[in-house]
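Dear colleague,

Thank you for sharing your sequence with our group. We've completed the structure prediction you requested, and as agreed, I am returning the results in plain text so they can be pasted directly into your records. Please verify that the sequence below matches your submission; if there's any discrepancy, let me know and we will rerun it promptly.
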Amino acid sequence: MLVLTRRQGESIIIGNDVRITVVSLGPGRVKLGIEAPPHVRVDREEIHARIVQEQAADVLTAVAAEASANANEPHTAQLTKTEVLSLSQRKPR
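Please find the predicted structure tokens below.
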């Protein structure tokens, strides 16, 4: 992990298109401003964790639905690794 020291108003650049600026300092907290292009998703860690958990649940639901839909067929279809990855990377609702 790279650890940098910045003062209020100073920034850090990631790549060529993401800028993180220290907006303000308070007791026990730091406010950061993040400038990033629209295609770069920026989430707080707890929100990101919830999204990942929801996507995993969606994949399990899809796999269970596929298995149950094919339970009475002689040849049960299986999802390929690519299909499972595709389902797990869907954007949240």
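Summary note from our side: Residues 1-41 form one domain.

Kind regards,
the structure core
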